[in-house]
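FORM 7B: Structural annotation worksheet

SECTION A. Query
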Amino acid sequence: MQALARQIKQLANTPPEGIRYVPTDSITEILCEIDGPTGTPYEGGTFQVKLILGNEYPTAPPKGMSKNLWYKFTVKDIKIDLVVLSLG
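SECTION B. Predicted structure
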C-alpha cells in the first residue's frame, strides 16, 4: 500500500497535462478529470474517470469507468500505467 500511496501522491502533485486528480476518502478509488483533446469533438469538455483497485491489485488490473455518458468514445494513445494516467 505504501507504493500505491506514493503513486497517488505523485499523480496529485505532478499530473500529466490535461489530467487532474480528484482526492477521495478511499485509497482504492482513484478519480481523475481529463480535458477533452484539442481539435476533437471532445475539446472543451471535462471527462471524469474512476478506477477501482480490487483486492488482487496489482496482480489484477483496476476496473475503470467513466462518470460521463458518451454516444461514441474512442481511446487512442492513452496508457494506464498502474494508477498513473499518462498521455503518451
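SECTION C. Observations
The domain at 2-87 is CATH 3.10.110.10 (Ubiquitin Conjugating Enzyme). The CA atoms of residues 36 and 44 lie 6 Å apart.

SECTION D. Sign-off
Analyst initials: ____
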